[in-house]
Amino acid sequence: MAIFKMKSNLIKNTTTNYITVFVRVLQAVFVTRWTVSYLGPDYYGLWALLWSFFSYALLLDFGFGISAQKYTSAEIFNKDISRYNRIISTVFSFHVAMLVLIALGTVCVSFFLGDIIRVHDAEKLAYCRKAFLIFGIGTAFVFPLGMFSEILVGLQKLYLRNYVNTLSKIVEIIGVGLIFFLGGGLMSLVIFTMVATFSTNIIIAFIASKSIKGFKLHYKIDWETCKEIAGFSGFVYIMSVSRLVLNKSTRLLISIFCGLESVGLYHLASRLSEFCFMGASQYQENVRPMVSNLHARGEFEKLSKMVLGSMVWNSFIALLIMLPSFIFSGQIIEVLFKVSTPEVTYMSRLFIVSMFCSVACRRIPEVYLQMTERHKRTGYVTMAEALSNLVLNIIMLPRFGVAIVLWNSILIRLFYTYIFIVPCMLRSLKINMFVYVLKVYIVPALICLPAIAVAYGVNLFDKELGSFFTMFLGGGACAFVFMFFAYFFMLEEQGKIYFREKFGELIVKLTKFSRA
């Protein structure tokens, strides 16, 4: 497989991605528990609203951040450092302009905050307004610095970004804990969070700028460069907005046609697939800069092998994580959320299938087209997909209920992927459709059969074992059997050698540790 021929950066990038995700989950659990406990319902609601409200500021990126990643991964800084500095300076200057817009918007909205959060007590409103202004203006100053994370991704040095982010999350856990232990409240939390976020981004900016020889940043917008960037970033932005509209409109439509209780069930059913996505998608972040780099160098044969190998590896990871989650979704939801209803389990499984279609079928082909000057196709397809979902949901929700939303998502995603995205990718890479289907889907599907048999065998003893042990033993056995057969029938010889070496190194380290 292509992954085993790549530099050690790829391994470090993916491994540190998983470590960062793990720390983020811990941080989310601890901080959520503490904020709920110490802030009370009103101020916790404001804290949640602040994050929700200012997450929309990301839309002001207009796809320029991905453009910075693309031009970095194409190594323009090696070919023409002056042009590269001009491009990055234009992106940064544009983001600084958005900084001003976010800050002004924060001040304007603060005058209407009382009506938005329905607080009219003068003292409490003044406190909330102050927290809102600090959070909003802090977000504005952080906004332009987000570009530097994309530069590190473009350099294929995600591990450096991950080191900083992981350390930052650990500091945040300790800091938030100390704030509440010492009697601090919402204002202290807001100030600490903004200072920590700003400091993290400054460190990433310093590392990124020192990683490129001759890097210089100027506050100047080159309009010709801006036009060049906009041709790519505009379609990336359209895709982001299309997905946002689809996701937000789905919950709104469910609320209108089925009621708030159905929205709650839909949201709860989505949680397991979100965890699966976090586990299955960390490798994918490496693909975008690698595609751009190989395409810019004209190494098309290597690019073809890399993309096909990445899709095989991607399918392996997705099945390893999502297959046990699909089979034992009822037990997992009961253990995690103390909910046990057939409706939630059914929708949770549909969510997992939908997520698998996105992770294993769509993501890498879409990224390939984006980074090889076919971004217009992906933009138009995403818009058409979002519109198709919206129309079908409006027509079918009142008649068939909430689950139809997920069926629409799955079928529409597969239709647009295999009619407009995958064939274009295969033609460009000169990959035979039969080879693609065989390696990416048929072989992994056959390898799944023994794992499925073992999983359902364990499921027969669900009442005797209970939900936790059924989930733990069944999920572990399913994953082990899948990995066992994948080793013999899915990995190429070089991959087997790699795993044997790593497994041997692990045994040696554990032996030394036990003796010490």
Characterization of this structure:
- This protein has two domains: 1-221, no CATH class; 224-451, no CATH class.
- The chain is 85% helix and 0% strand.
- It has 20 helices and no strands.
- α7 runs parallel beside α9 and α13 runs antiparallel to α19 (462-489).
- The radius of gyration is 24 Å and the shape is globular.
- The two termini are 37 Å apart.
User: What would you call the structural class?
Assistant: mainly alpha
**So how many helices?**
20
Shape: globular
The gyration radius over C-alpha positions equals: 24 Å
Low-confidence stretches: 1-6
The overall pLDDT, averaged over residues, is 83
Main beta sheet: strand number and arrangement? none
- Looking at how many chains there are and whether they match, the oligomeric state comes to single chain
Number of strands: 0
**Overall structural domain count:** 2
Distance between the termini: 37 Å
Q: Percent helix among the residues?
A: over 70%
Q: Order of SSEs, N→C?
A: HHHHHHHHHHHHHHHHHHHH
Q: Beta-sheet strand percentage?
A: under 5%
